Amino acid sequence: MRRVCGAHHMSLTCVWGGLVHEMVKGANVSLAALSEDVGSVMVRLSWSSPTGEGDADVSVLLLTADGKVRSDGDFYFYNNPVAADGSVQLLGKAPTADGNEDRITFDLTAIPADAERIVVAASRYEGARFSDLHDLCLTLADGAGESLLRFSVENPGEVGALLFGELYRRGGDWKFRAIGQGYESGLAGLATDFGVDIDDDAEREAVEKPEGHAVPAPETWSESLPAIPAQATSERLLAPVPCTPLVPSVPPDQPEAKTVPPRPRTAKKKVTLPKVAKKSLAENDAWRVARLFPASALKSDRERETRATSVLLSVMTQVPEFGRRLTAGFGAPSGRMETFTEVTLPNGDSPRRPDGVIRVERAGKLWTALVETKTNGNSLKQDQVQAYADIAARRGYEAVITLSNDVELDGSPLVEVKADGRRKHKVALWHLSWAEVAHQAQMLIRHEGVGNAAHAWLLQELLHYLQHENSGCHGFQNMGPAWVPVRNGIDDETLCQGDSRAVDVVESWERLVRQVCLRLGGELGQKVLPVQRAKRGSDPRTRRAALADQLCADGRLEAELRIDGTPGILALCADLRTGKLRTSIEIPAPEQGYPLTWAKRLVRQLADAPADLHVEALLVGQAPGPRGTLERLRPEPADLLPKDGTPITGFRLSLFRGMGNTRGNAESGFIRSVDESVDRFHAHVVAHLDRRTSPSRTRETAATG
Questions:
Q1: Global pTM?
Q2: CA distances for 26 relative to 161, 178, 194, 644, angstroms
Q3: What burial letters (b/e) apply to 634-660, b meaning 16+ CB within 10 Å?
Q4: pLDDT of residue 665
Q5: What residues contact residue 583 under an 8 Å CB cut-off, 6+ apart?
Q6: Looking at residue 267, what is its pLDDT?
Q7: Alpha carbon distance 528, 521 (integer Å)
Q8: Going edge to edge, which strands form the sheet with 336-341?
């Protein structure tokens, strides 16, 4: 039996099954012929680009027999990512070993009866075309996470939108058809052709207002929610049923006005500025706010694991948006959820007690997952997880979910679990890091929103608990036992290529970078993803071995982060020879104007940046350009211009700081120094750059392709 493994927090799975069905354009296949577990399926769209900056957005349309949507609500995209009945959910982007992928879950048992077809598409923006992307691919997995089919799109052409494929009903079963058809008119044109009434004019007017124009925050539940810091909300957040009417009610003697639902807008909706927390009523700062989930009394690892499991599972059941967001990534259906802790299950002469159980009921059928939790940096135990996988297989459960501070990587599972080939039932093994849990909570309460104030308060209490120093749920915090020997080997030049300890350090670095992306993305409300420039499909172990050899040769760990809405890629370099961390960004030169004007404008944008910021001009031919600190360039921006008139292609901005000595996240730790470097650079440099010059701009204007 073949073991199929995918990677990265909620997209991590290890299942056992057969070969993947390869599709060609125009071909179709019955899902029931590929698997017995297709009530819930996950579709992944992936692509790569030579620069690592190319990207696209997925969308889904539910169509009736006449090929049109029933209403605008059947159009799911970044401004409308989730169906109310849970039948469609766009899970967003996740990094993989060789790029990024967009994931969509479908509960096919919940698709309305009059929806005959489900079209899966993707679109680019700002005039970008799919011909610039490589390795365009759709894969479909069953409810156990096993990949069933794969469709590679060849030569998509100069198009702004692309239909990858569709799911459609035939004789009571669902089938998949590979389409691979392009649309020159982009997302708005694609949606319009299927009957969606797009309204981009109003959004475009708002977007074209001058910078600094305040967008009024909508009146929501957050107005009455005290003492929740950084409580940003999205326009799509608005509470579905406010506790009090926002407008005067209609007198009984007057006819009620007909409510016209708003038309969808393909321009990305704005996020309002964080609201200022109300002044505390405490007499002094020593007073502690009462917490629903106190963590200060926790003393042992067992107490931490028990408390963390109970806190998380209880909030998942009480906040449907949060529970559904986590379980949808594991292939669970949308339905009534109940969670349990410390459940005893028979296992021969020694019963097992998993830390938790999640059960979801829909249409009389149960989906069940066992939960194994670790906190405080403790590692998962192979024998425990293996026992739970065996129990799940015997009892017909669908999944085993592990939670710990570790981040699992493609090709490097945290635990190795063997399947009993004699059993027909398949069990999916998923891993979720505590950093991912905190990220999802942050995204909901600070940027996207939940249904009411009580849900927001519960998520805020959960987030406070996870971030408490005594909870043990702080995420990846230790570079591992190989960190110090590798640093010493680099210092005294005794580290040789092929040393397995260097591979361990490269894996720890990759885990750290992914966690930095989760944390920063949760704070900003933007997608933050590591850029992978390796050829898609390359073996992850081979790639990490090459990076380890590079580390032995030059003593540097490097990474790149793509942050939605920034004018370039944020680069991070840890030089273990010099003990310096460098954060930098390269921004392109404007297409119009004069070099001196560019230099002056850049210096003005960086008025509040640190004086020790290094600024370098990038020249044609990769020749070194003029450079200097911001302190020196402020009175003389012309010093950035080459004396011989060589054309400038852009500018590189860099900050340096010393990196921690220890492997962990103590005050002097390496991990803490990386976090602080990225935060300082983004807050004091990147956030002040003019995003209108970005070649990879987000959808700030209508995405008409």
A1: 0.76
A2: 18, 5, 20, 57
A3: eeebeebbbeeebebebbbbbbbbebb
A4: 66
A5: 570, 571, 572, 654, 655, 677, 678, 680, 681
A6: 63
A7: 5
A8: 2-6, 13-17, 428-433, 399-404, 365-373, 356-362, 336-341
Structure tokens at 582: 């460098």
Is there a contact between 6 and 145 (Cβ–Cβ < 8 Å)? yes
CA 194 → CA 60, 116, 130, distances in Å? Answer: 11, 13, 21
Which residue in the block uniquely carries the two structure tokens 């990196």?
Answer: 659
Helix H or strand E encompassing 41: strand 40-48
* Amino acid 144: pLDDT: 78
Tokens 């900050």 appear where? 655
CB 543 within 8 A of CB 97: yes
The torsion angles phi and psi of 104, rounded to 5 degrees, stand at -135, 135
The H-or-E segment that residue 45 falls in is strand 40-48
Low-confidence ranges of the chain (pLDDT < 70): 1-18, 51-53, 96-99, 199-262, 265-278, 421-424, 534-537, 663-668, 691-705
Name the DSSP letter for residue 448: I
| Residue with token string 């005290």 | 226
Instruction: Please tell me the distance from the alpha carbon of residue 56 to that of residue 268, in angstroms, as a whole number.
Output: 13
pLDDT value, residue 268: 56
The dihedral through the CA atoms of 313, 324, 461, 436 has a sign that is positive
Note the helical H segments in 51-196: 186-193
Beta strand ranges found along 69-133 (DSSP E): 75-76, 88-96, 99-107, 117-123
Amino acid at 677: S
Distance CA(21)–CA(28), nearest Å, equals 11
CA 674-675-676 angle, to 5 degrees, is 90
pLDDT digits (tens, 9 = 90+) for 11-38: 333 333 457 899 999 999 999 999 888 8
Helices 434-443 & 320-328, crossing angle to 10 degrees? 130
Separation CA 577–CA 579 (nearest Å): 6
SS3 690: coil
Q: Are 649 and 623 in contact (CB under 8 A)?
A: no
What is the strand order of the sheet 28-30 is part of? 28-30, 173-183, 161-170, 117-123, 57-63, 75-76
Burial label, 590 (beta-carbon count in 10 A; 0-12, 13-18, 19+): middle
CA dihedral 663, 664, 668, 671 (to 10 degrees): 90
Order of all β-strands in the sheet with 88-96: 21-23, 147-152, 134-141, 40-48, 99-107, 88-96
Q: Which amino acid, 553?
A: A
**Amino acid occupying residue 620:** V
| CA pair distance 614, 351, nearest whole angstrom | 62
pLDDT at residue 235, rounded to an integer: 32
9 HSE (CA, 13 A, CB side)? 31
For residue 322, which phi and psi values (nearest 5 degrees)? -75, -45
Please state, in angstroms and rounded to a whole number, the distance separating the CA atoms of residues 661 and 671.
10
Among residues 565, 574, 583, 573, which one has the least CA distance to residue 693? Answer: 565
CB 72 within 8 A of CB 100: no
Taking the C-alpha atoms of residue 455 and residue 241, their distance in angstroms, rounded to an integer, is: 13
> How far is the C-alpha of 95 from the C-alpha of 513, rounded, in Å?
11
Q: What secondary structure, in 3-state letters, does 550-619 show? A: HHHHHCEEEEEEEECCCCCCEEEEEECCCCEEEEEEEEECCCCCCHHHHHHHHHHHCCCCCCCCEEEEEE
* HEC secondary structure over 166-188: EEEEECCEEEEEEEEEEECCHHH
Helix or strand holding residue 351 (H, E): none
Q: Is 278 exposed, middle or buried (0-12, 13-18, 19+ CB in 10 A)?
A: exposed
CB-based burial, 327-362: b 16+ in 10 Å, e otherwise? bbbbbbbbbebebebeeebeeeeeebebbbbbbbeb
For residues 88 and 565, give the distance between their C-alpha atoms in angstroms, rounded to a whole number.
27
